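Hi P.,

Sorry for the delay on this. The queue was packed all week, but I finally got your sequence through. Input first:
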Amino acid sequence: MVEWKTISSLLLTLGPFLVPRLYSYYKASQVQAQTSNVPVRPVPRYVQYAINILLVAAALAIIATFPQFQPENIFTTTSSRLHTPIDVLFTRLTALRPGKQLTDFDNALRSRLASLDARCQYFAYGPTALAECPFCKSDEPATFFYYTLPAIVYPHLLNLFVLGLATSTAIAGKEGGRWRTMAALVGSCLAIADCYMVGAYDWKGNARATRSTDLDFFYWRMRTIRGIAIVVLDVGLAGLLWATSTNRLLVIPVSSAERLESVTKIMEATRGRLGAVGMIRNVIVRDENLRKKAETYWGQAGEIMGEVMEEKEVVEGIRGALESGRMNVTTIEEEAMRFTESIFATSEVSSTG
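Then the structure:
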């Protein structure tokens, strides 16, 4: 098994090269997000479904690491040492059992924990492998690894299913689909690394332990590490989905085809509204009662606006704006002229077409 010293030295060696590059990559993505003119938006509802799935899976994975959901370690339960005699060990365990009776599982363990190698394998592969494996032998330690392999892979397979569900286009759309390959790759690498660590573990290392504090409860430690690794992966993917779907990170610029489609939809909607306004106008003009009501309304509106414009406060306000330069009449006239010319130009093009 790879020791922590090796991992720490590797991190110290590669860290000065990786950290600046990761930071530069992050800053470049931020600059791209700012220059791509893509506004930040709320999380789409379908992406929120995927994020919820990942967070629920992460919560279940972290709950599974709690001591209440871990298999019992009879050595810690009875405060026994590695070399505690088998009779003393199970006498202590009997005193803790309901009704002072050992279970069938306890009796199966008792028949297998007589030797030192069996106890070391208990710490490496867990109680179930020793008590229930029909083909495992202490002199063939690889058999215990083969027996525990399905239990090691099972949580990763469940998590791969969750990752696939959360990154499917049917649930998360294209925002989730862009991370599908990466999520599957990281989840698979996590499973392979887990199997490698268990398979390469030196299970005989506990034979040299002289005190209880020196014992390495590898099986229980790996269950905790496995759950935490799954939590980090799921929460990290949920964070990526949130950041990318809201255009805060790794923004993909809108393509020309998408822009053209968006503008076309806006123009079609505007044309539909203008057509509806024109139909209403035709109805009003053709109907005598409606036409009279419209003429009356606009006549009253003109009178009201005329009265408003003649009020002292309004006149003084307009005069003050003109004198202070806040209202430039020449600029307003030029803008009105350009607007009028653009309308007539559009009308001429439409009539010509």
